[in-house]
Write a structure and sequence with these properties.
α1 links the parallel β1 and β2. This protein has one domain: Rossmann fold, CATH 3.40.50. The protein is α/β, with parallel strands linked by helices. It is globular. The protein has 6 helices and 5 strands, in the order βαβαββααβαα. It has a 5-stranded mixed beta sheet. This is Peptidase M52. It comes from Thioalkalivibrio denitrificans. Belongs to the peptidase A31 family.
Length: 167
């Protein structure tokens, strides 16, 4: 999936579901794996774009500011058991992202991208982070068993947010 803002229609409300992570660093790639699973299951709502954001770059700022709502799926330091899934919504997401508790090794931080959207006055009003506690952040292409087991729950959380936001 390509992260280009041109696929967003000008007048249709759009929700961006953005999966982040490096799939070469085991659990660090969880966001990408969740997006892949959601894409495999098929779209569940119109106006929703699933984007594999990989390891972040400033090019993702465009798709974020073009969105009316944003759901990010990524690893997060939750101080919990591996595979724990937590949803941070709105101001709670902003506070968590701003706390510096991320475990990711992304080139550009999610905090940087949200700051760009804020400076442009186009931060999506509805936004959430679905954070998953990693276990292994080492070379390898497979998720640890605990984090792999969290993929269905993370997908359920994405779908629950989409359902609630579009109701």
């Amino acid at each position: 999936m390509q992260a280009e803002p041109s696929h967003f229609a000008q007048n249709d409300p759009r929700t961006l579901v953005l999966g982040l992570g490096n799939t070469l660093l085991q659990d660090e790639g969880i966001g990408v794996h969740v997006i892949g699973e959601l894409a495999r299951l098929g779209p569940d709502a119109s106006g929703v774009d699933y984007v594999d954001g990989g390891t972040l770059s400033f090019t993702l700022a465009g798709v974020i500011v073009e969105s009316d709502a944003l759901i990010v799926v990524d690893t997060a330091q939750l101080d919990s058991a591996p595979g724990t899934v937590r949803v941070f919504e709105g101001a709670e997401m902003d506070a968590f992202v701003g706390s510096g508790r991320k475990t990711s090794v992304h080139e550009v931080s999610l905090r940087d991208l949200l700051a760009i959207a804020t400076l442009e006055g186009r931060l999506p009003a509805r936004r959430a982070l679905i954070g998953i506690q990693p276990e292994v952040l080492d070379w390898g292409e497979s998720l640890s068993p605990a984090v792999a087991a969290a993929v269905p729950l993370a997908c359920t959380e994405v779908r629950a947010l989409l359902e609630r936001w579009t109701a």
